[in-house]
């Protein structure tokens, strides 16, 4: 007889060898996998810590587009050659204070500061204001060239000796009443656009290094002289339209009469009178007749 062998799982359902291997090895495999995963996780964390942090991207500097919309006008820069001409026409000096209305990229203010002036730009677009400040810094004139974000119609212009602008005629006309209230002798210079029926005192067009918007227009705020004045017992009766004058000295009509800031000139009875206005008085010389003076009556 063959010897009888008792099954290992006597009385139980037979277990196949493959199943037995799976049941007995699974806990070990599970432990090994957990250990490997932990090791990989620690290694990855160490690598991430060792790598330098990425530098934040440098913001791109604002660059305006020619023709972009603004509050009152589109932005078009004044050619540099005309900037120089405008300042020349205004006869600026380092003692002058300049304000540029709608200062854009700041070139007029910066050029004035480079000539020694204290200059300020008024610009509604805050991006252009920041750009102008950077440009002034690069030019080394940020101590004399400043910029503010403001509405030009809400800005006090009374401290300016020179006002520059590149605005539309309609905007200039809207500004005109304010400009005419500025101290006599204040110089106003516009790129191309006029001031309605207030004719400029001077105009110059350049042809070199300029293809568009190449005319500079200058106005000098006139002293207010309309009314009656006593000139050595004669009545000087003046009618004023901006800088242009008409009227009579005694019974004689005056001609070629105008204001140039505080300077007055006219012809009466064939004699040219020139002088300076100082509030309620004026004085000067009459050609061939010596000095003259007048007092407002």
Strand content: 25-35%
CATH architecture of the largest domain: 3-Layer(aba) Sandwich
Based on CA atoms alone, the radius of gyration comes out at 41 Å
Q: How are helices and strands ordered from N to C?
A: HHEHEHEEHEEEEEEEEEEE
What does the overall shape look like?
A: elongated
What kind of sheet is the major sheet? 8 strands, antiparallel, barrel
Number of H/I helices: 5
CATH superfamily of the largest domain: Vaccinia Virus protein VP39
Q: Can you tell me the number of structural domains? A: 2
Can you walk me through this structure?
- The chain is α+β, with helices and mostly antiparallel strands.
- It folds into two domains: 74-221, Vaccinia Virus protein VP39 (Rossmann fold, 3-Layer(aba) Sandwich), CATH 3.40.50; 227-296.
- The protein contains five helices and 15 strands.
- The protein has helices spanning 17-50, 80-89, 107-114, 126-139, 169-180, and strands at 97-101, 118-123, 145-149, 162-165, 187-191, 202-205, 215-220, 227-231, 234-241, 244-249, 252-260, 263-268, 271-278, 281-286, 290-296.
- The termini are far apart.
- The model is unreliable at 1-25 (pLDDT under 50).
Concise account of the structure shown:
This protein is of the alpha+beta class. It has helices spanning 17-50, 80-89, 107-114, 126-139, 169-180; strands at 97-101, 118-123, 145-149, 162-165, 187-191, 202-205, 215-220, 227-231, 234-241, 244-249, 252-260, 263-268, 271-278, 281-286, 290-296.
Secondary-structure map:
Blueprint: H1 17-50, H2 80-89, E1 97-101, H3 107-114, E2 118-123, H4 126-139, E3 145-149, E4 162-165, H5 169-180, E5 187-191, E6 202-205, E7 215-220, E8 227-231, E9 234-241, E10 244-249, E11 252-260, E12 263-268, E13 271-278, E14 281-286, E15 290-296
Parallel strand pairs: 1-2, 1-4, 2-3, 4-5
Antiparallel strand pairs: 5-7, 6-7, 8-9, 8-15, 9-10, 10-11, 11-12, 12-13, 13-14, 14-15
């Amino acid at each position: 007889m063959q010897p009888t062998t008792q099954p290992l799982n006597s009385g139980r359902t037979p277990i196949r060898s493959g199943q037995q291997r799976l049941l007995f090895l699974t806990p070990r495999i599970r432990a090994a996998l957990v250990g490997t995963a932990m090791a990989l996780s620690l290694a990855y964390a160490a690598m991430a810590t060792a790598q330098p942090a990425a530098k934040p991207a440098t913001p791109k500097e604002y660059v305006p587009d020619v023709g972009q919309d603004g509050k009152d006008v589109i932005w078009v820069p004044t050619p540099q050659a005309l900037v120089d001409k405008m300042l020349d026409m205004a006869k600026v000096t380092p003692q002058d204070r300049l304000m540029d209305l709608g200062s854009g990229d700041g070139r007029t203010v910066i050029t004035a500061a480079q000539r020694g002036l204290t200059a300020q730009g008024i610009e509604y677009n805050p991006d252009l204001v920041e750009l102008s400040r950077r440009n002034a810094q690069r030019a080394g004139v940020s101590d004399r060239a400043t910029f503010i974000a403001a509405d030009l119609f809400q800005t006090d212009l009374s401290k300016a000796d020179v006002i520059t602008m590149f605005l539309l005629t309609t905007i200039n006309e809207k500004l005109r009443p304010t400009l005419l209230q500025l101290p006599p002798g204040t110089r106003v210079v516009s790129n191309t656009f006029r001031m309605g029926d207030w004719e400029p005192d001077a105009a110059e067009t350049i042809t070199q290094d300029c293809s568009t918007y190449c005319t500079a227009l200058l106005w000098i705020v006139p002293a207010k002289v309309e009314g009656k004045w006593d000139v050595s017992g004669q009545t000087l009766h003046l009618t004023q339209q901006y800088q242009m004058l008409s009227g009579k000295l005694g019974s004689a009509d005056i001609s070629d009469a105008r204001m140039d800031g505080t300077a007055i000139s006219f012809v009466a009875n064939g004699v040219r009178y020139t002088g300076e206005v100082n509030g309620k008085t004026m004085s000067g010389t009459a050609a061939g007749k010596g000095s003259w003076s007048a007092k407002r009556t």
